[in-house]
Amino acid sequence: MRLPLFLVASMAVATPLHARLTPPEARMTATVDAEYERSVALLQKLVDQNSGSMNLAGVAAVGRMMRAELEPLGFAVRWAPMTATKRAGHLIATRAGKAGAKRLLLVGHLDTVFEQDSPFQRFVRTGERAEGPGVGDDKGGMVVMIAALRAMHAAGTLDAASIEIVLTGDEEDSGDPIALARADLIAAGKRADVALDFEGLFVENGQDMGSIARRSSNSWTLKTQGKTGHSSLIFNDIYGDGAINELARILAAFRSELPEPNLTFNTGIVAGGATATLDADGVRASASGKSNIIPSTAIARGDFRTLSEDQTARVKAKMTAIVARHAPGTGAEIVFEPGGYPAMAPTPGNRALLDKLNGVNKDLGLAAMPPLDPLRRGAGDISFVANDVDGLIGLGPASEGDHAPGETVDLASMRRQAKRAAILMTRLGNGG
Fold first, then answer.
1. Per-residue model confidence (pLDDT) at position 253
2. Model pTM?
3. Which of 207, 350, 366, 417 is the most exposed place for a label (fewest CB within 10 A)?
4. Does domain 5-214+342-429 have CATH number 3.40.630.10?
5. Would you say residue 60 has pLDDT above 50?
């Protein structure tokens, strides 16, 4: 459970800066504070431009706004169109640093879940809170990124840093095939030494949490078949159990046999009868039948989430074995859909990065950030580079109600997050 944002903000600013900051680091913190209203104004500009994943022109417009922020800081910026995946594209920016500097990959996204037909469209500020589509996820994260980079620029530490930024245009609704949609990000991960994800900060009971893991997202479709006939004949040796009972058997077995740590699984849509179909997008079902007819077909679609690729493989094997234990007179098959999000496991390298961030917290006079339970986070783009590079998640601002009308950001949290990010990136870039 999260505390109200006004309480989080009041607790977060109660501790003064620690004297262990270097002069450039102190300059960075002062710059973040001095440019706070500028950052809020940028956030409003980004939020007021709709960029639902399927609003391709809107996503591109937000990309141009971010280009205008990055080019003056010395980044070479390019737009990678994603016409082949039916999405707008990605913004990719690079800045070469000093020889031998750690190569930092910064990850965020331009799109939101709020499409052009959503009634939730505008930025509304009330003191240190603001509502708006994507105000936390992920436009607030992009503003934190810019604020940190501007602070580094003002302190003279940006020149030494080697940074590549990938802002995807379809994080909330990825294009297909996903291998193409994430090719630029994956390539950037292979070039990087550290990946930093600027999605939102989790706050629990007034405590900022560190994130070193994200779970996968894997979709599946289950289809069952039965012998149709008069309902009075169900369960006999000729007609067997029928398609719907077979589907129910399988789903009940998932519930009883699959549970293990860090796994969640869900059945999102079900249909069955004499006929049963899903639409092409897999989000609408139709069925027909009668109470006195044994159903010949049933279909279900769902997902499951894991903390490692080994766990993903194990769960798939368990599900496949459950499906294969057919009830009498039935058949079934399960298909695991390609293009899911991989897992980002909580590796020792990720833990070491959180330790470095907690060194920054100590010097800023902020409390140490314990690792967040990965069950609290959904899937995200950084997972596509997790096998190639150590990473941290959650460098964006604290927010609540993400992905729903009323999404609200704690504006003050942008300041402490930008300070953390600027100092962490400077230290990492210098070999710290």
1. 98
2. 0.87
3. 207
4. yes
5. yes
